[in-house]
Amino acid sequence: MEVELKHLMADLQSLNQSLPDPSLHASLLQIQSRVEHLANLAKSEPLRRSKVKDMSAEVVDSNPYSRLMALQRMGIVENYERIREFSIAIVGIGGVGSVAAEMLTRCGIGRLLLYDYDKVELANMNRLFFRPDQVGMTKTDAAVQTLSDINPDVLLESYTLNITTVEGFETFMSSLKNKSFRTSKQGSGVDLVLSCVDNYEARMAVNQACNELSQTWLESGVSEDAVSGHIQLLIPGETACFACAPPLVVASGVDERTLKREGVCAASLPTTMGVVAGLLVQNTLKFLLGFGQVSPYLGYNSLKDFFPTMQMKPNPQCSNFACLERQKEYILAKPARDAAEKAKLEAEPPTEEGPLHIDNEWNISVVDDCELDGSNAKSSDILPEGLTHELPVADDFPSIPACQAPTTDNDDLEELRRQLEAINS
Amino acid sequence: MEVELKHLMADLQSLNQSLPDPSLHASLLQIQSRVEHLANLAKSEPLRRSKVKDMSAEVVDSNPYSRLMALQRMGIVENYERIREFSIAIVGIGGVGSVAAEMLTRCGIGRLLLYDYDKVELANMNRLFFRPDQVGMTKTDAAVQTLSDINPDVLLESYTLNITTVEGFETFMSSLKNKSFRTSKQGSGVDLVLSCVDNYEARMAVNQACNELSQTWLESGVSEDAVSGHIQLLIPGETACFACAPPLVVASGVDERTLKREGVCAASLPTTMGVVAGLLVQNTLKFLLGFGQVSPYLGYNSLKDFFPTMQMKPNPQCSNFACLERQKEYILAKPARDAAEKAKLEAEPPTEEGPLHIDNEWNISVVDDCELDGSNAKSSDILPEGLTHELPVADDFPSIPACQAPTTDNDDLEELRRQLEAINS
């Protein structure tokens, strides 16, 4: 529009110069002043805030970060401005992912990587974030449009691709590995991956990428009847991966036979998705900024306002090879981890009712080697009230004895597998 | 802008007619076509969706209600389209109220009444909803701008006023009493009031109005350290009103001495406010559409992902006169209520594990008359883990014996007060 207005003004100028009759100049001048007014109107419409170099804690109405920096004065966060150093990847910019992206943008996250291949439709308008005027745009483009207006300080990278295709997965992997944003970082180039996809295949693709990159991620989901959801923390090798156990869902108590009929469109609510996005990003902030406890699994049953929690250990018979590799590394690193924890405990004076492990930022208890087969127990025996498996438990996992003798440091997954084969033969 | 463009086109037309030289017509024609292009650009920018007469369940991308109407097929809601008959008042269009308004707008609520006197500032940008280009607008104007673009089917009424002033309170009361939207409704003209204010005085004003109008409301709040919040259902006469007991807050575990220092700006997070808004509107939907259980009180401690619940009975020594009137009515209506419940129970066949009271849509147990003094018990004795009173318990309430003998139908609050005076004299 700005370009159009410039051309218009140039045309009027040249017409003015070629006008023979001085009496016509007055009416042309009026036209020119109208166009100038229009140009001003057009300019003032997309009023954007300018970038902010440093986060200030100054309590003035014009400071977009004053209420966030106040978290330091309130004793919640030690150094809020560190948020600018972090990169978060959000896979799926739908009802949960788009709201999560907006929350992180408003919190002033350093860099956001957004992945989706879908377009905005009017049928999405029952969830937060997208606007009717964005219908037809790709979700990534629409998200970048909205988020860059809200906070120009956030570095946005968008990828319009399907991570379940070969090409899409390769681009996904290489974008996660890109370390140009903060060179000091170890492992992958992002601090956390948030999975906000709505199907099993896409979750398996995120799981594969994160297992290969040893990348911690948070998975989220909302049920097809729109009234329950969950978030889950996955640390490759340390917690169950998405292939270790059938995914869990929060039971809504609604007859399952009415769900998942072929061709039936799933229900969704802005409330359930907003709550799940809020819990997801709150746990992301706790993870990044080191306050509170990150939940290993948190369900939300909205019919009863019930929030089940649980922890899941990795499955030594997991079908995912990269997961087995990470499990092996985790077991092999146990002596070093124990020594580091012991040193930390000795260095710090004992606190009243202190945490079991000082550095246990995810509130996860250490998995004893002999308990590694826990995830093979019958699902109904180990799941807390209100949780059910989304898929039936696979019957082809061989059962192993309740508890092996404590394994030595030399034991690894190959050894476990050999023992297992001997038992089954 | 549209008006300006029309004037411009008229001016060009008259200039065209007065041009003597035919060679100038060509350049003027080019100018006119440029202006027409600009007019088209200006028209296409605020692309709004048209109003929808009936909510359709048709599964097409262009249907903004398909995912909501699917709640019926999923067996969650019996008649979703009823949502168009309801009016909701939201007091306080800040971090919680604005998101609640957006959720209800996207759900297709019939009518929204919005109350706030504040202006949008850059310091609000760390919470969802308002955009930097709205800085300087009143929150009510900015909300109407955004919400009417999102869903033109919702009837929006905005009131830029402070309900704690005499004049503001009067307008607030008369707006709640206006029954023109749906004439069949009994009592006030709204179905539910959502309190999303950030201070004690405003909550007391909402409490006063709702007690006077016998209007059920949902209160919400977020702590000054930004990491906890709550929602609470208040039914005048049936549950504790806001004056019955010191307000409850969810303890964050952070040293209270660091909080509430004079002149310190409160912290806030889009996550906590998004979760509280989501829980608030989810319970609003359950209340309106009759599914699931409405929580009488639900807390959110984000540091531990802990969600305490509780119920609060009215205080027969409440300082609010209108509350005492409602309590009296509630007690007097007990025989009629019991008879109606009995009739309903007899009319319907007994269901397996059915609810205690068929019509108990708020999941609140009937308060036995002799338990009416429960709220006078020492607060530390009755509060569930994780909840504390925001203010100290008032010491001037006279204590009464643990449990009176069951009162007869003739007993009312005057009688209770007489008994109390006799004990204390």
TrEMBL record, chains A, B:
Protein name: Ubiquitin-like modifier-activating enzyme 5
Pfam families documented for this protein: ThiF
PROSITE patterns: D_2_HYDROXYACID_DH_1 (PS00065)
Start and end residues of each THIF-type NAD/FAD binding fold domain: 65-319
UniProt superkingdom: Eukaryota
Swiss-Prot/TrEMBL keywords: ATP-binding, Metal-binding, Nucleotide-binding, Ubl conjugation pathway, Zinc
Family according to the record: Belongs to the ubiquitin-activating E1 family. UBA5 subfamily.
